Amino acid sequence: MIPVATSAGEAEYSLRELSVPLDLQRLVPAATDWEVELGFGKGRYLLRRAESRLDCGFLGVEMAGSYYHLAQRRMRRRRLSNIVLVHGEALYLLSVVLPRRFASAVHVYFPDPWPKVRHQKRRLFDTETIDLVLDLLAEGGRLCFATDFLEYGEVVKGILESYPAVEVVEVTGPWADGARTNYEAKYEREGRPILRLEVQRVSGSGVPLHPLGEACVLAAVGFRQEVF
Ligand SMILES: C[S@@+](CC[C@H](N)C(=O)[O-])C[C@H]1O[C@@H](n2cnc3c(N)ncnc32)[C@H](O)[C@@H]1O
């Protein structure tokens, strides 16, 4: 069961009760626009942002049950009716559950860097997964990304820069609105360097795929049979 929580009427659904792809407009009918945060942790940024834009719907995805429940309690306490929280694994949800090309912004802050080579296939940003993340964005939408794991940050920057349909800007210094998430606030206090990127999906670019993503795909047949 993948739980989906909204604060409108304090509802919580299992995914089986909802349509797939997820009909977000049914869950927050008043939303005129959507933003997404993947791996929202304790929900500091998602909740603050939702409070500042009540006309906009906010979709948060988080794998850790304790954080999902914490953010759920907080959104209800603040009576925010423009948030949908989904408890599940982001790549699975991006592949089969979430709608495509609907968001004006996607936020990913301090995703797990998975430094060991054998774990790197779990990364949210990889040549084989980048299309899934970027395809949440409507044309003109932007992705905001930050990491303190600079080596991973440089890899993500390189992947994005070789993507045909986006413009990548490295943000120097803190965001204009200050530290966005708990991890960012903590790392700023500790004086750790942080790599921040703002990436815009440019218009008129069709449905491009990352060139290195398709290079990872092979198809094999055991032996040839005459089937026709
Ligand atoms: C290092 S924490 C950062 C939390 C928050 N973004 C912040 O900056 O304070 C990474 C978060 O992403 C979540 N996460 C990691 N991999 C995920 C995945 N594949 N799907 C959904 N959530 C994931 C973790 O549970 C954790 O809450």
Describe this structure in words.
The structure is a single chain. The protein has 8 helices and 9 strands. It has 228 residues and is α/β, with parallel strands linked by helices. It has a single domain, classed as Vaccinia Virus protein VP39 (Rossmann fold), CATH 3.40.50. The chain has a 9-stranded mixed sheet with strand order 2-1-5-4-3-6-7-9-8, sandwiched between helices. The radius of gyration is 18 Å and the shape is globular. Residues 39-41, 61-64, 67, 89-91, 109-112, 124, 181-184 line the site of S-adenosylmethionine. S-adenosylmethionine is lined by residues 39-41, 61-64, 67, 89-91, 109-112, 124, 181-184.
Keywords:
228 residues, Rossmann fold, 8 helices, alpha/beta, single chain, 9 strands, binds S-adenosylmethionine
Q: Total number of helical segments?
A: 8
The backbone outline, from C-alpha atoms, is globular
Q: What's the architecture, going by CATH?
A: 3-Layer(aba) Sandwich
Number of strands: 9
Given the helix and strand composition, which structural class is it?
alpha/beta
Low-pLDDT residue intervals, each spanning 5 or more residues: none
- What is the CATH domain class? Alpha Beta
What ligands can be seen in this structure?
Answer: S-adenosylmethionine
* DSSP helix fraction: 25-40%
Strand content: 15-25%
For the largest beta-sheet, the strand count, sense and barrel status come to: 9 strands, mixed
Mind sketching the topology for me?
Layout: E1 3-6, E2 12-14, H1 24-27, E3 34-38, H2 44-52, E4 57-62, H3 65-77, E5 83-87, H4 90-96, E6 103-109, H5 130-134, E7 137-147, H6 150-161, E8 166-171, H7 182-190, E9 195-201, H8 211-214
Parallel strand pairs: 3-4, 3-6, 4-5, 6-7
Antiparallel strand pairs: 1-2, 1-5, 7-9, 8-9
The chain binds S-adenosylmethionine.
